[in-house]
Design goal:
- It is a single chain.
- The chain is α/β, with parallel strands linked by helices and 319 residues long.
- The chain has a single domain, classed as Aldolase class I (TIM Barrel, Alpha-Beta Barrel), CATH 3.20.20.
- 32% of the residues lie in helices and 16% in strands.
- Strands 1, 2, 3, 4, 5, 6, 7, 8, 9 and 10 form a ten-stranded mixed sheet that branches.
- β5, α6 and β6 form a beta-alpha-beta unit.
- The two termini are 33 Å apart.
């Protein structure tokens, strides 16, 4: 069995993410992620909107952690990624481990840890507890890609599949949509680290790396460059999920409108994926924008039929 970690070593002078804030989260100090050492989650349940192998038949067992080291201007999860409020559920390490176990009992195909970078020590200890009680789901690390290799080394032995964003390799695009021009230079060593770890990706057995790339509006050439970059460096090791449904929350862009990707651009990207021999998924075109902006103020943040809240999570939330 893998060992637990001393959370105080990491939270007392926090450098878990590339921001390296050096705050003492144990005393309640908060860095850019907006979180102390208290574990706070916004929602947990079965979600059927992930890539098919991750969702399985009943859905992926999601745990959405509050806070985020990366403040993307148009984050669809802005309600929980940017907040420093205390309105979301606080849980102990033991309660978090129970959530993992309850998701397994509910028939989840995977345990999907969403934006957990700033809680890595707590997640490790919760997984340690749950494994001792029979937990056996494949663990998916669902992240923005804004990581440090050192932090990934801590969690790596617990992760089966990395579901990692690669938002931009262009500094100007990263500055416009990720709020930091250094995103590409942070992403590069992370991808190299994972390439050394995984010679190939086997989605049938949920092992390896699945990279998500979202096409930002007006940046079609950057996405084409990314596809070439991916094919040249990672297509033998990783798989790709190309996402084309950029929908900015209206609260974050009330006076802005962005051009949707055109049918011609979509076909160009799809054709390029085929020409470059990249394996993976391409998001289907959809006119329904509601699906992509969850409302975490509700017990069911997603449209009916899209996801099922975990009863254990709701019992913690309302008691």
């Amino acid at each position: 069995m893998k060992n637990q970690v001393d959370e105080s070593l990491y939270y007392s002078d926090c450098t878990l993410c590339p921001n390296a804030c050096h705050v003492n989260r144990l005393s309640g100090q908060k860095g850019i992620c907006g979180q102390s050492s208290e574990i706070r989650i916004a929602w947990s349940g079965l979600h059927r909107g992930e890539e098919p192998p991750v969702s399985g038949e009943k859905g992926s067992g999601m745990v959405f952690f509050c806070g985020c080291p990366l403040h993307c201007q148009y984050c669809q999860n802005y309600q929980i990624s940017r907040t420093t409020s205390t309105s979301w559920l606080s849980v102990s390490t033991e309660e978090l481990s129970c959530i993992f176990l309850e998701l397994q009992k509910a028939g989840a195909a995977t345990l999907n840890l969403v934006t957990g970078t700033h809680y890595i020590p707590s997640i490790i200890n919760a997984l340690h507890i749950s494994h001792a009680k029979g937990f056996s789901l494949p663990v998916v690390w669902n992240s923005s890609g804004y990581e440090t290799v050192e932090a990934l080394r801590l969690i790596d032995n617990y992760v089966d599949l990395y579901l990692l964003d690669a938002k931009a390799i262009d500094k100007n695009v990263a500055s416009s949509f990720c709020a930091t021009s250094k995103y590409p230079e942070v992403l590069s060593p992370v991808l190299k680290f994972l390439k050394r770890r995984y010679k190939e990706t086997d989605l049938d057995n949920l092992k390896g790396v699945l990279i998500r790339h979202l096409v930002f509006p007006g940046t079609i050439e950057q996405s084409k460059a990314f596809l070439h970059f991916f094919a040249d460096n990672f297509k033998e090791n990783f798989m790709l999920s190309l996402m084309t449904q950029f929908v900015p929350p209206k609260k974050l862009s009330p006076n802005q409108s962005f051009p949707r990707i055109t049918d011609k651009e979509y076909e160009e990207l799809s054709d390029l994926v085929d020409v470059l021999g990249i394996d993976g998924f391409i998001q289907e075109r959809s006119e329904n924008e509601i699906l992509w902006i969850p409302d975490f103020r509700r017990d069911q943040p997603f449209p009916e039929g899209f996801a099922d809240p975990l009863p254990y999570f709701l019992s913690l939330k309302h008691n």
